[in-house]
Design goal:
Length: about 350
């Protein structure tokens, strides 16, 4: 078939239609530059162009959503040394009651809007879609308070719900600002939609309800909207029913795999690349990630095996989560070259 543009290829994959080749994108944090939206934009655009990726997933540092509410962050600006929480913004249950809606152009939120604007400026007239990274309100709350959030959920649900609504309203404002900046969609990640942290009933009440409020604000305004289920024991079936256009999870080391997922949902699947090291049954590392070995033949077979699981349809090749920041050019070229054939 004729060569497609990146946008055409992505839209065909989202619809489960035939593509000229399976679309691909790889993402990693750039912690040496991610405190500066201009430098981060330049780095991400340069990387996407160099390896001919089909879209850019913007990579703001993962704690950007909690700084305005008093969380203290240690920032290192070093490779593979991302920012860390030095002090939670929520220390007592009553602290949830003092959260106020943050304007989208304020502080660390404003920096990420500027990141989107800069990428739009750099790619103007170019067929290179890009999507912004956002988090479920419950995930943001967990980053703000730590795992005490689950105790607060059960002892003072009313107060926590009020806080989740504030976080939701803040994120909705941020979403609208990013749409104005020109994003092609959103990558909504949750770290709480799993049976290790909440029950199915709590998922409905504290996670799904607020995520759906957010998704409703952009699902018809942007075309490339991915939901990311982070961690093990995820509630995949329930999560896949949300109105995303595609689903991302750790398919190479968590269930379901791509073939199993296709039996659960008809949505486009985002995955196929194992981003983490390999471990034995006792949890001991037996080898590094396939992406650090620079074995082109193995990487090629790895990607093409993923493509075969779903016969090359309704698939975007991507990592289960962020790849190591020191992934080599050889590995990235191997990943990109591997999607040229469906066989």
């Amino acid at each position: 078939m004729d060569k497609m543009t990146k946008t055409e290829r992505l839209k065909a994959a989202l619809a489960g239609q035939e593509v000229d080749r399976v679309p691909i994108s790889i993402w990693q944090h750039f912690s040496t530059v991610d405190q500066d939206p201009v430098s981060l934009a330049e780095t991400q655009v340069k990387t996407a162009r160099k390896f001919d990726y089909d879209f850019i997933k913007l990579m703001p540092f993962g704690l950007y959503g909690i700084q305005p509410w008093g969380a203290q962050i240690d920032i290192f600006c070093k490779v593979n040394h991302p920012p860390l929480v030095a002090e939670y913004g929520i220390k007592e249950t009553e602290d949830w009651g003092r959260l106020e809606v943050v304007p989208p152009y304020f502080g660390s939120y404003g920096k990420q809007v500027e990141l989107a604007r800069q990428v739009m400026k750099l790619t103007k007239g170019e067929d290179l879609p890009f999507i912004q990274t956002i988090f479920s309100p419950l995930t943001t709350a967990r980053k703000l308070a730590g795992d005490r959030i689950f105790e607060d959920m059960r002892t003072n649900p009313k107060l926590l719900k009020e806080a989740l609504q504030v976080i939701t309203d803040t994120t909705i404002g941020f979403v609208k600002a990013n749409i104005e900046a020109g994003v092609s969609g959103f990558f909504l990640a949750t770290q709480c939609c799993n049976t290790d942290t909440i029950t199915p009933e709590e998922y409905e009440e504290f996670e799904k309800y607020y995520m759906c409020k957010m998704i409703d604000t952009y699902k018809d305004a942007t075309f490339l909207n991915i939901g990311h289920l982070h961690g093990e024991n995820g509630m995949f079936e329930a999560f896949s029913q949300l109105p995303f256009s595609a689903i991302s999870w750790h398919d190479r080391w968590c269930t379901p795999n791509l073939e199993e997922a296709r039996k659960i949902t008809g949505k486009c699947l985002v995955g196929g690349v194992r981003e983490v090291p390999y471990f034995d049954a006792d949890g001991n590392k037996v080898r590094e990630s396939i992406l650090k070995d620079e074995n082109v033949r193995e990487i090629t077979a790895h990607v093409q095996e993923a493509i075969r699981q779903v016969d090359g349809r309704g698939l975007i090749i991507a990592p289960g989560c962020c790849v190591d920041q020191e992934i080599t050019e050889i590995s990235q070229y191997a990943l990109r070259s591997a999607v040229n054939s469906k066989k």
